[in-house]
Amino acid sequence: MDIPDRRFENLQVNFEARDVSGGVASPETDATWLRLSVSGLPAGWQLGLAQAVLRKNVVKTTNTNNGIDIRYTEQLRLVYKLTLPAGATGTQLAQLSFTDTETGADLGTVPLMVSAGSAAAPKVGAQF
Has residue 24 been placed in a domain? Predict the structure, then answer.
């Protein structure tokens, strides 16, 4: 998925609020501008976006002579809501398409494997 850099640039690290070891908190915000469209699932299978969070995950904070150096990764955490009809079984490959609702920009499409069966709870897995 191609999230514009400006979305991460808007997340500001609060250097005044440091923990006892000198680290800074990872800033995050809800990505309410993210829209999900799903294709490839059978009738009655519904997959929705329950939560989307944009985050600068601070992995290291170092004090230097010139100030504070931080290292972080940019992350997008997605939580899905999956609804299946009673008795649903099988594995389906869904295509998830993401759009920025504020700009209308297409952010990309990723595959998602969805499995359902009588022996276990439904499973949802993605790798991108």
Answer: yes
CB 71 within 8 A of CB 59: yes
| Length of the chain measured in residues | 128
Indicate the pTM of the whole model: 0.79
| Residue 58: Cβ within 10 Å count | 16
- 45: domain CATH number? 2.60.40
Q: How far apart are CA 74 and CA 54, in angstroms?
A: 8
Rg (CA), the chain: 19
Are the C-beta atoms of residues 81 and 72 closer than 8 Å to each other? Answer: no
Domain with 69 in it: 5-120
Tokens for 82, please give them.
Answer: 């999956």
Which element (helix H / strand E) includes 29?
strand 28-30
56-94 pLDDT tens trace? 998 888 888 887 788 999 999 999 999 999 889 999 999
Q: Which amino acid makes up residue 17?
A: A
Q: Say how far apart CA 112 and CA 25 lie, in whole Å.
A: 31
- pLDDT tens for 10-22 read 898 887 777 777 7
